[in-house]
Every structure is written in C-alpha cells, then in structure tokens.
C-alpha cells in the first residue's frame, strides 16, 4: 500500500491560526465559557455578495479549504471529505424558529437548504467545480477521524492522488443554551492558563474549521506522514494505556519511541482522568502537549490537534503555551494524538516527520 502524507494545513480557530506563516505567535487570552473563531478577511476568498448569504460555518470551511489547496499547489481535488458533529447549526436554528414563528406556513427554503450537514462540502465543491467523490461524516466527536480514515484508505489503495479533508463546527445560540442546561459547558468563565486547574464539569465550547490536503506523494510542502489511525466508541479508563501500547506495537514502535504526545484535555473534572493516567504512566517521560485551552471544545476540534502536531513536525518547534511538562527531545520524529470526549469516541492518530 502507498504511504499517506499531509501536504498542507489550514486552521480557522479562536486563535489567529489562519496565517500559516505564524505558529501561535499571538495568543488571545479568553475568560469565558464559549469562544468564537477569529475571522480572516473573507473578502479575499469569497465574493461579498456570496459571503453575505453564507453562515459562518460555511465561510470558515470554504476559506480554510482554499488556504489548504493553495499551500498544496493544487486547483482541484480527487475527493472532498468533511466531518462535522453538529453541521450548520445557525441555519438549522433559523429554519426551526421560522417554522414556529410562522405557524408552519410561508417558509422560505434557503435556511433549510443550507442547514444540512453536507452543505460545507457542497459549497467547497461548487467553488472549485469538483464533481468527484464528496462525502460528509457525522460521527459525533470522531467525525473528523472518520473523514481522515476514509481519505487514508483511498490513498493507500491508489484510488486518488490528492484529497481535501477537514472538520467544521459552528456555534448556534439555542444549541449552546441546551449544552449549558445539561452541564456540557462550564458553569463559570475560565482563562486559558486555568483550564487544566478547573475542578468543574464541562468544557469551554468553541467553533472552527481545520482542513488538510492529504496525498500519496511526498511534496515539498509536506508536514507529516500519516502512519495510522484508530477509533474506539467506548474504552474503559483502565484499558487506555494497554490499548495505546497495542496500537503502537501494531506499528512497530513502543511508547519510548514517541517524541511527543498531543492530549485533548479540556478541563472537565470527570473525564480528564483519561489523560492524567497516561501523563503519569506510559508517557511520563515524553513531551506532553495540549491545545483545548487555546481553542476550546467541539466535535471536530481533534483536527486542530492534528494541525498542531503537523506544524510541530515541520517546524521542529513546540510553543511554550502548549507544553504540559518540561521533557525535551533533540528531534521530534514521531507524535501520537489522543482524544476522547466525555469518556466516549476515543481516537489515536500516529504521525511521523516527512
């Protein structure tokens, strides 16, 4: 089977990450329970008339995909594969509200058309006139991983050369209120420096779009090689270390060969224990990295973890703001990304330097 390479990256997040020439050089310090993505200049990528008709999630996805495509040096892709847990929530809420307000009569179809989960992938395809494979995965907190796994298998089996893959989430007002009621969002505001010290339930919710061009060709722009990816719907806390060791063994390495591990800690007092046992156990002598204190939590935020790992492998630098411990490696060749959400939908991604 052919190898799989990440040849370009793009991120729109609550931090200024849309500029690939920078690497967390400017940090926005939040003190809130919900944080929104920082907008690039959409006019540079989308005609203003079209932009006005797009919800934020669509605009973020379209722009992030264009940034990734430009960096990879391609004009179209052999496939467009996206992941989203909640889809285009803003338009979904608009349509449902219109149903209620208008007593189910005189409804315009625009919000409904733009509320489907595959709207982002469709808009991207329309923009580049791509009529190839177009698929959207809605698999909760492993939606992005499902999309990436699909792309990986196609590339390994030589079914495509360049695939655009990404994850998109946007915040809707009503949905955010629901998550507050069920304690998925923290009850009090926290700053980025205090997230791991928080002793309350829930996380800081966010939105964003992260896109990658993956290919079976190692190009000059290559960030990382995607070695392996595995997901687990359920996994007991006392089985996590064993599961990761099996995952590494299947790829002919051990925990001692891992130069850095990217954790998905979000400050939830009930579920950060999954990461704590690893940081004190099999990875206690490994450089540990986290990111959700900077960009919050959502169903495809693990894609930002891949963005971060890819950037580290290419630049061979780790910003101090993402370091959990002080362990250092002379060279960063291998990174493992581990994420879970509320004890479910665990994912493991193994990346290596190109």
UniProtKB/TrEMBL annotation:
The keyword Kinase does not apply. GO terms for cellular component: cytosol. Residues 39-217 form the Beta-ketoacyl synthase-like N-terminal domain. Keywords: Transferase. The keyword Transmembrane does not apply. One of its GO terms (molecular function) is 3-oxoacyl-[acyl-carrier-protein] synthase activity. Gene3D superfamilies: 3.40.47.10. GO terms for biological process: fatty acid biosynthetic process. This is 3-oxoacyl-(Acyl-carrier-protein) synthase. It comes from Aequorivita sublithincola (strain DSM 14238 / LMG 21431 / ACAM 643 / 9-3). The lineage of its organism: Bacteria, Pseudomonadati, Bacteroidota, Flavobacteriia, Flavobacteriales.
